[in-house]
Design brief:
It is built from three helices and seven strands. It is of the alpha+beta class. A five-stranded antiparallel beta sheet has the order 1-2-3-6-7, sandwiched between helices. Strands 4-5 form a two-stranded antiparallel ribbon.
């Protein structure tokens, strides 16, 4: 299992770098990321969450599909919004409702180097946007109003910092 970077680590606030070449190491990282995500009961995991500041994340949303997204770009998003309760493997034990666009069009490269695009809705859309935010150095708590953000950070610190 890979070690998950947790809240407070500056790495989580940095923008990830583009991947220019899919190597054997990249494929190994992808496999280890899926293993780590499943072990921790997650549905998405960005490379930065395991200490790699590169534009890569994996998602596996039940009934929606399993994806490897390298250098993803959200090309379009709906004006319609949806709200889901979000959590994060980098902020264990903390969750909150987050409003995001209901539908997105995402373009990405898969692990075989093929360019793809998918339209996502529902939980898959939310999951992709959550992981995409990680690549931009944004955590789901950053999407909350200032009062709720402070409350969630305080809850996290009480749970995890002695």
């Amino acid at each position: 299992m890979l070690k998950i970077v947790t809240f407070g680590d500056k790495l989580l606030t940095q923008k990830s770098e583009l991947i220019t070449d899919i190597t054997k190491e990249t494929i190994n990282l992808i496999n280890e990321m899926f293993d780590t995500m499943y072990y921790n009961n997650g549905i998405g995991l960005a490379a930065v969450q395991v200490g790699q500041l590169i534009n890569l994340f994996v998602v596996d949303v039940p009934d929606h599909g399993k994806y490897v997204m390298i250098n993803p770009k959200i090309a379009d998003k709906s004006l319609e919004k949806q709200i889901y309760e979000e959590g994060c493997l980098s902020i264990p034990g903390i969750g909150n409702e987050v409003e995001r666009p209901a539908n997105i069009l995402v373009e990405f490269t898969d692990e075989k180097g093929k360019n793809k695009k998918i339209e996502a809705s529902g939980l898959l859309s939310t999951c992709i946007q959550h992981e995409y935010d990680h690549l931009e150095g944004i955590l789901f708590v950053d999407r909350l109003n200032p009062e709720d953000k402070l409350k969630k950070i305080s809850e996290y610190r009480k749970m995890h910092i002695v």
